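Hi support team,

I submitted a single chain yesterday and got back a structure, but I'm not sure I'm reading the token output correctly. Could someone confirm the output below corresponds to the sequence I sent? I've pasted both exactly as they appear in my results page.

Thanks,
R.
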Amino acid sequence: MSTPAPLADVMITLGARDFPKLREFYRELGWPQIIDDKQFAAFEVRGVVLAVFPIAELARDGNTEPDPGSGGIRFTVGIMVDTPEEVDQLTEQMRAAGARLLNEPRQGAGGHLYVFVHPASTGGVLLELIQEGGH
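Hi R., thanks for writing in. Yes, this is the structure output for that exact sequence:
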């Protein structure tokens, strides 16, 4: 039996149609920026790296074409926090950075608080701010 490969760090890269605007949005949140190049920015978010890269460059690197952005939801990125107060704090940080919220913090079926951030604010990604565990 072979030994499984060790788990690697996780990086989520967003292909940005407006790279400077999206980079500035995440800077305004105050998240630690660990890479800041001319066309690439990365932020550390509780052990995960959230990267922003111009969509044309991302498509070129992937040997494909950029998605036409025809609308509809394809996925969400959840940002999990521990307490209701942290949901409120992150909600206010998002709002202060110019995010458009789809709802105010509300209780989900499992008892957790959650807020959705409109994809137009985040480069086409539906962000969910959510209280982990819901206790």
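A quick pointer for reading it: The radius of gyration is 16 Å. Let us know if anything else looks off.

Best,
Support desk
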